[in-house]
Amino acid sequence: MKIVIVTGSSRGLGASTAIECARNGMGVVVTYNSNPNKAKDVVNTIAQNGGRAVAMKLDVGDISSFSAFRDDVAGKLETVFGRDDFDYLVNNAGYGLFNPIATVTEEQFDGLF
Predict the structure, then answer these.
(1) pLDDT of 112
(2) 106: number of Cβ within 10 Å
(3) 56 lies in which domain range?
(4) 51-66 tens-digit pLDDT
(5) Do β-strands 88-90 and 53-57 pair in parallel, antiparallel, or remain unpaired?
(6) 60 vs 62: CA distance, rounded Å
(7) What's the total number of domains in the chain?
(8) 113: which DSSP letter?
(9) DSSP-derived secondary structure for 83-95
């Protein structure tokens, strides 16, 4: 079984991508930032269609969390999929600011890039 990590896959295009990947026989790591219930819904949809998936929290705007996420993914790959690696990464998650430009700090601006 091929395994794909789809970032930002608790809703919208990411959720559709995760579900379609599962329909094509892939195991899916669904990531979310702020809505674990929506991520669980995606995992449940995949499971109801006979697929295998797991939901994991990932904040792409917090670089300091990446090493812990990497370690968590390694554990889930082993326990859920019986693998120590994955095949594909779909970078769907986004990070944005929704403030007037005059109120954006330098740190916030740097976070966009």
Answers:
(1) 67
(2) 7
(3) 3-111
(4) 999 999 999 888 899 9
(5) unpaired
(6) 5
(7) 1
(8) -
(9) -S--SEEE-----
